[in-house]
Each structure stands twice: as C-alpha cells, then as structure tokens.
Amino acid sequence: MKKTIVIENAKSGQDKIGLVIEEDARIILPLYYLDNIESSCDITSLEKQKLKRLVKAWRKYQKRIENITIATDEVNKEFYNFDTALNIIEDFVNNGLYMEYEKIETYKRDGKIDFTKTIKKCKPIITNQGSIYLKYISHVKKVNDEEIIRNLQKIAVNSIAKEIGWLIGFNIQLPIENGVNVISKKSIYELNEARNSSFNSRKLKLIELLLKYIKSTGKENKAISSNLFVATAHHFWEAMVFKVFGNIHKTDINKIFYIRHTYKNINTNKNIKVLDPLKPDAIFMNSSNINVIDAKYYSRNNLPTNEDISKQFIYAAKAFKKYGNSYKYKNWFIIPTNSISEVSDYRVHFDRDINVGENNEYSPIQIFYANMEEVVSNYISNESMHSLLK
Fold it and tell me: Which residues, 6 or more positions from 115, have their beta carbon under 8 angstroms from its beta carbon?
C-alpha cells in the first residue's frame, strides 16, 4: 500500500527529528535539509536519495554511546534505534534466516545409536545374550533455541520493514508458520538463555541485536511503533558540528574546557548544590590557533541570545587561562542554513569603550552559517569543514 508522506522541519532545537508512522507518514527533518512537502505532492528520486542519506547520518549518530545516553535520559523517551534496526536488516540480507546446524551428543533410549562413542563412554549391562546399553549416545540436531531465535528474527525484520522499509527500500514480509509470533518479556529471557549457552559468533551477534531492538523500541506486545524519533534536533546538530568542525576529542574538551558551577557554604566549604557543567560543542586546535565552537540550532532570522553569548566568552576565557598568549583565539557560533556555507558579516563583541583587544579571552564571536545538506554529507563521509572558519 502506498504511503502518503508529509515532510516537516523541526523548527525548535527541542523538537524531535525522525518519523511519525500513523495512517500516513510524517518525516520531521532538521532545518534546511528539505523544504516542507505537502501530502498531495510526490517525492522525487532526488528527495528520496536525500532522505536515505539522512538515515545514514541518523544511524551514525546513534552508534556513539554518548548519543544513546542522551536519548535514554530524555523525559519522554520515544527514540528509535535506527542503527540496531539497520544492522538486523543487514544481517538478514547477508546471512538469511538464522539456522543452526550444530549436532550435539546426548544420552538417549531411542533414536540412532553412535556405536563407537557408546562403547567408549557408556557402561553396559552384561547378559547371557551379550552387552545391553539401556542408555546410549545418539546425535540430535540442536533445535531448542534455534526456532525461537529464527521466529524473533522474522518478527523483527517484518516490523522494521513495516516501519521504515518504505524509506530504505526493504519491504519484505516473512511468513511465521509455527511457534512464537509476538515479542514478549519471555522473549528476552529466552534470548538471554540462548546467549549464555552458545559460542556461535553469528548467533551471539544476532541475539545482541534482537535484545537491543526489543529494549530500545519497547516491542513487547507491540507490533509496530508510531513514533520513530532519532534525537532532539539540537543534539543531532551539535553532534554533527563536533565531528565536522572540531578536532579535539570529547575527553580532552571535558578535561580542559569544562566550566563547573557550585553553590558552597562559605563557613563549611561544603557543596550545597552542584549545577550542570558547561562546555563548548567543539574545539579546533592546531599549532597556532584555537577555535572555540558552539553549535546553535537557530533559523537564519534569529541570533544567539545573551545567555549564549555569555557562555561563549567564558569558554574562550577558560582556553586563554590554560594556554595564554601562545595561541590566536577565535570564537564561533555555527548556525544552519540552506544557502552556501559562509562567514556572516555579523559578529558579537564587547563595547569598544572597554578597550578589549582582539586576541584574548574576549575575542569577538563570529557567526558561521553552515549549509545543512553539506554538513550532513561531510558528517557521513568524515570530511572536515574547519578550513572554512577564516
């Protein structure tokens, strides 16, 4: 059945981006990636390619542990793990349905007897007619958990195909003849049991994927999700800016550029309240320059506020305190646009009457408008754009 699709932009940084699957589909995209498309319009092949590219960016975003942590800490957790879902589809496309051909030895009273191993390992009863083995060694195919895993794999593949198959070009539906046909709490228990008793690498990887899928999407007794969100818009934008414009690892940013605030009792010197720390979204640093970068998910007609400006000057002051006059400093706001990527004619600086120099902790904050489609493409391909910050 053809699905009617409406494309919208996440206007606020707090809006969620992703998909809403109801009778029709609503795709909520970052600002300036695609124009709004009404439900009566057909999506062109170029627009389909751009959507598939964005799914790659969503998947890459969700591979990072800190981004998953951000999602799980949200008050209204409605995040869909595109990375796990696409891994399940790739496993199926590359390897097919899970089949386990391993045979195991077991002691039985019926079935085909393994004479060699029975004679070596089993103790017979000696009678006038000869040796009698009441229990002997036979081989059976290991099917105790294989069918469970295979059926859960089918359920997951079918569910993913219904949810995002129309977006990624995967619309297959697998028949489930016998056994489990719904995911439940018992499914998690059975998968854990199967994982703990196996050394098969493909099996273990598939079990991990199925467990992640069940836990991250809340699939218990639920055939299909209606909200398939990736992240809040500003978290996704910040993650891309960090990768595309910065070159300092988050660990080093945390060590050097964290700004911590604490309420203390001046008499006892004990912490009364520890506030959330502040830190820039990215740092680009080479032998002579330090660029302090903050990503701002604003539309082009809006500019960062006093609070944003104050924090940015504090970040630069922290860098200056650490490195002094041995570097040149630049302060940046990175804002999305659908135009060419360029440095704005606007910048934020202190009143000239204060007589603050150009190269210190109060260096003016420059504004760089980054083309959203260009940032997404460079984020996927690990290409840097920091050379544009001039």
Answer: none
